[in-house]
Amino acid sequence: MTRIGYARISTSDQNMARQLEQLNQVDKLFQETISGANKNRPQLQAMLAYIREGDIVVVTELERLGRNNKELTEVMNDIQAKGATLEVLNLPTLRGIEDDNLRRLLNNLILELYKYQAQAERERIKERQRQGIAIAKTQGKYKGRKAIFSEDDSRLLHAFDLYLEGLSDKDVAKLTGINERTFRRYREKHKIKR
């Protein structure tokens, strides 16, 4: 049985020291600085590949594993499928309950409640951000994100030519290095159609 810690912060201006201090008793530690909005995080994937049956995955808060209910459920299912258990340090401990089934049931119930809370908090943050942007727009203070490509950018024009020659958005993205969604957005903006 190995105690495996996972620590994550979203940006480099945040501090991971508190998490590392709380995880100082683990046998193996995975840590990274990356948004929790996406499950495809290198150290999370490495940790999921590392765990074995009987291991205990330790996080300081459930939000370290992910910020929305779907991804949290997927990560927790991955941990459980490997025969490992999850210990969340800021959740109430259930060690005093001797019946394994009851302890597991209560633990899953608590985790479901915390997943819901994490998802609801993420949605509140997004809504406050939308409201702030709307207010800034009415005051003329918000201009949006700066465009990646100018209208006469040679790489973008080349991408349009490839598309008009019959290549798919995905193929154009591979050949030009422009993100597929970004290319599609620019194509729609400039009304490039076959």
SSE map:
Elements: E1 3-9, H1 17-22, E2 28-33, H2 42-50, E3 56-59, H3 69-81, E4 85-88, H4 100-138, H5 154-164, H6 169-176, H7 180-189
How would you describe this structure to a colleague?
By secondary structure, the protein is α/β, with parallel strands linked by helices. The protein has seven helices and four strands. The chain has two domains: 3-121, Rossmann fold (3-Layer(aba) Sandwich); 154-189. Helices cover 49% and strands 11% of the residues. The longest helix is centred in the middle third of the chain and has 39 residues, at 100-138. The model has no long low-confidence stretch (mean pLDDT 86).
Task: Output the keywords.
Resolv_N; Resolvase-like_N_sf; Rossmann fold; 7 helices; alpha/beta; elongated; Resolvase; single chain; DNA binding; 2 domains; DNA strand exchange activity; 194 residues
Q: Gyration radius, to the nearest Å?
A: 22 Å
What is the mean pLDDT?
A: 86
Order of helices and strands: EHEHEHEHHHH
- Overall CATH class of the largest domain: Alpha Beta
The proportion of residues in beta strands is 5-15%
N/C terminus separation: 59 Å
CATH-defined topology of the largest domain = Rossmann fold
Task: Tell me the total number of β-strands.
Answer: 4
The order of strands across the largest sheet is 2-1-3-4
Low-confidence stretches: none
Structural class of the helix and strand makeup? alpha/beta
Number of domains: 2
The assigned CATH architecture of the largest domain is 3-Layer(aba) Sandwich
Largest sheet at a glance? 4 strands, parallel
Helix content: 40-55%
Shape: elongated
How many helical elements?
7
